[in-house]
Amino acid sequence: SKAEMGHTCRGTINLATANITVEDSCNFIISNGGAQTYHLKASSEVERQRWVTALELAKAKAVKMLEESDDSGDESVSQTDKTELQNTLRILSSKVEDLSTCNDLIAKHGTALQRSLSELEALRLPPDSTDKIKQVNERATLFRITSNAMINVSPHPEHSTVGKAPTPMLSTVSPQACRDFMLLAQTHGKKWQKSLQQERDQRIRLEETLEQLAKQHNHLERAFRGATVLPASTSGTGGSGKDLCCPAKGDLSDEDDDNNEFFDAPEIFPMPDVMGHKRTGSNISGTSSDISLDEQYKHQVEDTKKEKRTRIPYKPNYSLNLWSIMKNCIGKELSKIPMPVNFNEPLSMLQRLTEDLEYHELLDRAARCESSLEQLCYVAAFTVSSYSTTVFRTSKPFNPLLGETFELDRLEENGYRSLCEQVSHHPPAAAHHADSKNGWTLRQEIKITSKFRGKYLSIMPLGTIHCVFHSSGNHYTWKKVTTTVHNIIVGKLWIDQSGEIEIVNHKTGDKCILKFVPYSYFSRDVARKVTGEVMDPSGKVHFALLGTWDEKMDCYKVQVGTGDNGAEARPRAHEAEDSRVLLWKRNPLPKYAENMYYFSELALTLNAPENGTAPTDSRRRPDQRLMENGRWDEANAEKQRLEEKQRLSRKRREAEAARATEDGKAQLLDRSVPSRCPPQALTPLCPPGTPYDPYKPLWFERKKDPVTQELAHVYKGGYWESKEKQDWSLCPDIF
Questions:
Q1: Residue among 527, 358, 500 nearest 442 (CA)
Q2: DSSP string, 85-152
Q3: Are 275 and 263 in contact (CB under 8 A)?
Q4: What tens digit of pLDDT does each residue of 88-103 get?
Q5: 585 - beta bridge partners?
Q6: Where is this region: Disordered (predicted)?
Q7: Which range, 86-95, 347-356, 521-530, 573-582, is most confident?
Q8: Extents of the domains making up the chain
Q9: Is the pLDDT of residue 695 over 90?
Q10: Is the N or C terminus of the chain more exposed, i.e. has fewer CB atoms within 10 Å?
Q11: Per the confidence metrics, is the pTM higher than 0.70?
């Protein structure tokens, strides 16, 4: 571009300074006089001459353009900027003319004043009058000097009054300095305008180049995937511990990560044609526009009564300009930024939270353990297993609406049932409660905070997870680690987990420390590695844990010996290889999972319509259902409608709370009148001036946990009874 003509770019020769020489009948040379030289060969002498002539003409044009650019700088100035600059220069010229006119008037009246004073000096006047006239003459001279200084021009030398008596002549003051100023401002104004325009052009070029680079990079990746076959997932969960070590994993996780580990985000870039719009007998397409959502829902309910579904409609090939959206999100809280469904997967955050129960059998085994330390090993494996579904799941779940719920009743098949409810919208928070007839209860309240940093996205779940075993009374708590999504703008999206988890048994004091090792390009270690130690209240380690959060976890019993100094010595884990026990291994993904958002077998069933669920259940959310059925444009419109409805509901509640607060303050003066003010509005938890949102969850209530002393939403009961009676009269209308 013209803005780069004054710079050198590696591998190029500037024609304006190039040397073009003919070597023989077919060869010629282009050189910049330095290290860059092109040796070119034409097919014939005529062809060579055509090239040389064209290059000479181009060189002449480049030289002319460079000179014109240096002289005027108008080439890169837009028409609007030219007009603005010309108006400014016109105003400056007008002001200079005004100064010139003032200069003429000062010279004219100053000369007349000097003449009058000289005539007064020639008259015979009393001595006192002569002194007064001299004083006035001096002041007139001072006025002339000051005027000259204002115009920034000194009197001519022949009229100088330095060292002489004031002369009756006032020098002719020239406005040349003001004209010089105008010309200087005009010259520099053009240069500044040119520099500003070049900066604007360069910024636009950089944005376009980055966007084009991302598109080309993704195109190459899709072409590569289309020419290769992805390795099939290993099936089965059995086998001996020694056969499940997977010794080749360390090699694959380094050089071959690009081919075997990471995949594009399915919500952003189009898949190859072979992945789109295929339907089988078990798929519910729902794409016919003449069928209402209610009819589709009833039809799907009938199909899912018999067996759990194993397929969902394949993800359509919809493209999206990712950079145009994400470039305005840097440094912001992602939950407050409206996103199109193109970034989503057809599940809500409540359903994603329920996926933690995919390996519920680990808690079933833990409930049967007699040793609290062995039980802690299975709880740790359960903690790690909740991350296994995230390895390929780079899509974003739907943000639940306030009051939205999700139930998962697997009491007959697996012995547990689960309930989630969105208890807060800003910050977004979800409460989860699961009970099992196999002897355990799991509950948690998770607040999701996320920050987009340009190159990566950090997701920080806040909140404590509780697991209580009924027979032993062991109460375990832990928190989640940070999830990071890398290569947001360019390259393959991939997910990593990093941080530490401390699992504490509050009854016995046992503790487990899990370390999620962040991925490093410079490490030869196994990718996504997790290590852990299970220790008693005294800090003595009894079990060592080793594995990866995307594949499996092993347990080693630590044999404690005695050192030379009498202290207890801890051996390395490989010394207890015979004691290795496979705690958990990831289930293989379903066939064609890459076409179905990389959902696991459990995830494929979560959004299947079911009879008898609450009207606030995520399965009934219309935008999510439309997106699952491939109708993304309609889903985006429906998503906007639901979000606007939620905003209006919040404003209505805040207005009602404000009125109730005022009534409560007035009624505090009259103790005989019961106050209708919400109790929270009058407590120190809600200071004056704080907007009070009087929303209260339907199935959960906020209490202080006696173990952690934290305020959290705890299940208060009533949901399953309401489902049995099919009495949903208390449920709000959120859809």
A1: 358
A2: HHHHHHHHHHHHHHHHHHHHHHHHHHHHHHHHHHHHHHS---HHHHHHHHHHHHHHHHHHHHHHHHHT
A3: no
A4: 777 877 777 777 777 7
A5: 552
A6: 608-665
A7: 347-356
A8: 19-66, 328-560+571-635
A9: no
A10: N
A11: no
